[in-house]
Amino acid sequence: MEKFFKFGERGSSAGQELRAGLTTFLAMAYIIAVNPSLLAAAGVPMNAAVTSTCVGAGIMTIFMGLFSNRPLACASGMGINAVVAFTLAAINGADWQVSMAVIFVEGCAILVLVLCGLREAIMDAIPVSLRHAISVGLGIFIAMIGLADGGIIVANESTMVAFGDVTSPKFLVGLISIVATVILYAMNVKGSILIGIIIAVLCGIPLGVTQMPTGIVSALDFSSFGAPFMVDSTGTVAVVRVLTTPILLVFAFSLMMSDFFDTMGTAMAVAKQGEFLNEDGTVENIREILIADSAAAAIGGLVGASSITTFVESASGAADGGRTGLSSVFTGIFFIIAAFFAPVISIVSSAATCGALVIVGFLMMTDVVDIDWTDLLEGFPSFMVIAGIPLTYSISNGIGMGFIAYVIVALVTGRGKKVKPLMWVATAAFLVYFLLS
């Protein structure tokens, strides 16, 4: 094991990697409760969503550890699972199998681009400011979903959105979730997000928000596995419907763009903590990391877990001493074990995950300082992305608005040459998408 993982060479040990793996699991285990609740809204059976979320994360995290030998963990990505639940479901007539087929196609496309060496070229074509803006926009979007789940904000015909009823049990559980998570996070408690959810679940019992489980352990539910190749409500194989429907292909493209940005930023963040970021800003073993991440996206759609991607919370494990892929193997094992406790996990209400979504949204806001707001070409398109994602309740819409704004501002300010060819292609694709919408 030492020869394969080289933890001695990297100043680590099996025990240290185990601790780091557990730290990463605790830091990102909130996804076990959050992802199924979102996927259930899209029509995926709850127990199946729990199984696919845990098993998918476990398998791909172990694969990442073995293939790249770096301390990165994978699970269903926040933001994209919201697209599955609230955007794709509305477009495809609530056929969740079709939504998963979109994710599957997107993942396969990214994998092909990585294997052909084109992923880095596409990354280079997108302005850095827009990459940061997408992360910030997703953060606000995720926090908005969390606040709505917790009853903190509600729909209002007069003002579009309003403050919730402070006396309602749902509001109280949501508030407890936020307060507990923030306090624990401020105290640097390991697994603060997961503990915050647990506290909110327990407080929800006397308030009638948390429903007691019918059991503790249950058999795994693999009914969502192979979703892209299932027949949808129209009698068409889901993946065939995606490949023959332009608007769904555009969605696959936009999700692919989102996956690009998240993974590159995450890899750099973890590499800095794990001491495999070179002085010139390049990440060691980046090709292996990108291949594993791209394969994870496709596997996520295949098993019905939404897009599985590399989690920035992996940095917590790297900061806690993770230096090799062994820590990822341990994290993956913890995820697979968690899959057997679906009844317990299913009692977690959406209100109880409010704090997790809000704190994750906060963490994603850090990229806002890396945008040059004094430059119209950098600032205005970034603003359109950041405002567009939450205000249109669509990640794709926000990204498209930012891309189009960037091209327009570049042209009118005489900087059209800054727009790279692939950026033109992406902008044209978004124009088609908006026209089709």
TrEMBL record:
Pfam families per record: Xan_ur_permease
Name this polypeptide is given: Uracil permease
Gene Ontology MF terms in the entry: purine nucleobase transmembrane transporter activity
Listed InterPro entries: Azg-like, NCS2
PANTHER family from the UniProt entry: XANTHINE/URACIL PERMEASE C887.17-RELATED, XANTHINE_URACIL PERMEASE C887.17-RELATED
Native organism: Tractidigestivibacter scatoligenes (Olsenella scatoligenes)
Transmembrane segments: 20-42, 48-67, 72-91, 97-118, 130-155, 167-186, 193-216, 236-256, 333-363, 383-412, 419-436
Cellular compartments annotated: Endomembrane system
Main location: membrane
Assigned protein family: Belongs to the nucleobase:cation symporter-2 (NCS2) (TC 2.A.40) family. Azg-like subfamily.
Key words, A-Z: Membrane, Transmembrane, Transmembrane helix, Transport
GO CC entries: endomembrane system; plasma membrane
Superkingdom classification of source: Bacteria
Membrane-related topology note: Multi-pass membrane protein
